[in-house]
């Protein structure tokens, strides 16, 4: 079994030293969804929400979150990200909005945390903008779909 890398020999939390790792292209794709009342999804899709373009604002929030991940997660490295995309798609048959993020960098550590953080914050922004009409929304199924680059290579969710 592999050991947790964010603890030293004494069991103390520390930032992993990536200085000796090769600089490679790194990519991570994450996803999640928010389910809601059909009327709430209609407001989002019709652009009839009084707060404005819900999905456009959530997209920007997700991008900003990816860039700020190291400020939120204590042991994450600050990274120079080369790509962040946040795609939000209404799913009327599920009364939901699906979010998929793609994050890239060329560096010594991966971007999984940035991709997952972007999903969470984009969906949380949808919740924030719509909570006045639907407090029962549920954010769910947030997960890593793919990562590539680095010594461990490619991992793909089945």
Based on the model shown, name its key terms:
158 residues; alpha+beta; five-stranded antiparallel sheet; molybdenum cofactor biosynthesis
Going across the biggest sheet, name each strand in turn: 2-3-1-4-5
Find the CATH topology: Alpha-Beta Plaits
For the termini, the CA-CA separation is 21 Å
Order of helices and strands: EHHHEEHEE
β-strand amount: 25-35%
- Helix and strand composition category: alpha+beta
Number of strands: 5
How many helices? The count is 4
Parts with pLDDT < 50 across at least 5 consecutive residues: none
CATH homologous superfamily annotation: Molybdopterin cofactor biosynthesis C (MoaC) domain
Query: Main beta sheet: strand number and arrangement?
Result: 5 strands, antiparallel
Radius of gyration: 17 Å
Shape: elongated
Oligomer: single chain
Mean pLDDT across residues: 90
In total, how many domains does the architecture comprise? 1
CATH architecture: 2-Layer Sandwich
Q: Under the CATH scheme, which class?
A: Alpha Beta
In percent, how helical is the residue content?
25-40%
GO biological process, one term: Mo-molybdopterin cofactor biosynthetic process
Family: Belongs to the MoaC family.
Keywords: Lyase, Molybdenum cofactor biosynthesis
Catalytic activity: (8S)-3',8-cyclo-7,8-dihydroguanosine 5'-triphosphate = cyclic pyranopterin phosphate + diphosphate
Outline:
With 158 residues, this protein is of the alpha+beta class. It contains 4 helices and 5 strands.
């Amino acid at each position: 079994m592999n050991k947790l890398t964010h603890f030293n020999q004494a069991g103390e939390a520390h930032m992993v030293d990536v200085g000796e790792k090769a600089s490679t292209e790194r990519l991570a794709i994450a996803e999640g969804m928010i389910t809601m009342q059909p009327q709430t999804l209609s407001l989002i899709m019709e652009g009839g929400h009084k707060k404005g373009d819900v999905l456009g604002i959530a997209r920007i929030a997700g991008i900003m979150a990816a860039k700020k991940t190291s400020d939120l997660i204590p042991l994450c490295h600050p990274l120079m990200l080369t790509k962040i995309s946040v795609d939000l798609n209404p799913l009327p048959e599920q009364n939901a909005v699906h979010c998929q993020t793609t994050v890239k960098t060329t560096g010594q550590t991966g971007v999984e945390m940035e991709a997952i953080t972007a999903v969470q914050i984009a969906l949380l922004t949808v919740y924030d903008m719509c909570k006045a009409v639907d407090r029962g929304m549920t954010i769910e199924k947030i997960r890593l779909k793919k990562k590539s680059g680095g010594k461990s290579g490619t991992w793909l969710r089945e």
